[in-house]
Amino acid sequence: MGQKDWRVHNPSGSKRVIVTKELPGTRWLDILTRSGCKVEICTSTDVLSVDEIKAAMGTQCDAALGQLTEDWGDPLFSALKAAGATAYSNVAVGYNNVDVDAATKHGIPVGNTPGVLTETTAQMAVALTFAAARRTGEAERFLRAGKYKGWLMTLFLGELLWRKTVGVIGAGRIGATYARMMVEGHKMNLLYHDVYPNKDLENYIAAYADFLKSQGEAPVSCKRVETLEDLLAEADCVSIHTVLDESTHHLINADRLAVMKENAVLVNTSRGPVVDEAALVSHCRKHPDFRAGLDVFEDEPALKPGLNELDNVVIVPHIASATRWTREGMATLAACNVAGILSGYPAWNKPDILSFLEEESPKAAPSIVNAEALGIPLF
Ligand code: DGY
Q: Among 39, 147, 189, 379, which is least packed by CB within 10 angstroms?
């Protein structure tokens, strides 16, 4: 691995912050420079190794902004601590790449970027659902290959999801937003599986069902199911919105795929290893009417053998949160996390995280996942 280039902003800043990838927009950089930071940004698109990040920290570093593709475990947090740093933020809402216990052990607050990915990611899950159900990838490849010789009644017949059943695994912010998009937009009945009930979602859908009835339309329903199998057996499309941890690794495996309808759609915008990708390849091979839409992969960026050849799978390269507003928002929140901690601010403890995107952001660090464990005061 060759030497990576780093670009320096505000060289006279008194606190040194390393940023392991280029980030979109300029607001995040203004926030850091206004907080007196010299900001060093790696301009390479290669994933940095632990050693490369350690080398970039050197012997003096006050904070780091890292990526979900990097392994932020004990070796990096102990190096960060040794370099005198007091803050880290992942530029992502998910932080399965971060060993939060190790960071806490070294006294380093860990930030993430919730709240700005919700609608963007849910929309991509919707897009993948319909791209898979309506076979847009296959159809586009066919057309571009010059195979379209005229309209045919039998060309690319897909699945109509209108008024069918949508299954959501994990009804947190993104899962619940996807659920509402599918229920409101396509009048689907909802089954969801989550360790916690989502009463707001249930109440919303009950109110929406009443509204539909008041319009003379058939209502929709919402049910939290006890077992994943109950959901998989009944749903016409299933979208995964869980975190990745030991309990969700290969949550969707060969046995669970076998429970699903033969013409169901499975969508994953969470983390690749939640699905046993080899089992999915084999399932999709055996069941050509089964369809999958994937934004994330088990060995990202690599695909499991065979996945790339399957016509019944739609694949995109982990872009579910890739709208300009969201990605700039993620960068802004990550910068506010680090700038907030470096400025000695408390950790934000209110729902309205979007106030950090406004010109005058609150004097707090927007999202510090180990704030309580570190005894950081809450705002
Ligand atoms: C995240 O922030 O965790 C997302 O996966 C990025 O798209």
A: 147
Q: Average pLDDT of the chain?
A: 97
Ligand 1 pocket check for 93: Cβ under 6 Å: yes
Same-domain status, 76 and 198: no
183 and 70 both lie in a single domain: no
- Domain count within the chain: 2
Q: Is 321 a pocket residue for ligand 1 (Cβ < 6 Å)?
A: yes
With 0-12 / 13-18 / 19 or more C-beta atoms within 10 angstroms meaning exposed / middle / buried, residue 103 is buried
pTM: 0.96
Residue with CA nearest ligand 1 atom 4? 92
Residues 138 and 85 in one domain: no
CA atoms within 13 A on the CB side of 338: 34
CA–CA gap between residue 2 and residue 278 (Å, rounded): 33
Q: What mean pLDDT comes out for the span 31-48? A: 97
20-40 as b/e: b if 16+ CB within 10 A: bbebbbebbbebbbebebbbb
- Residue ranges making up the domain that contains 46: 6-116+323-374
Is the confidence at residue 1, as pLDDT, over 50? no
The reply to whether ligand 1 has any atom less than 6 angstroms from the CB of 125 is no
Mean per-residue pLDDT, 167-194? 98
CATH number for the domain that contains residue 132 = 3.40.50.720
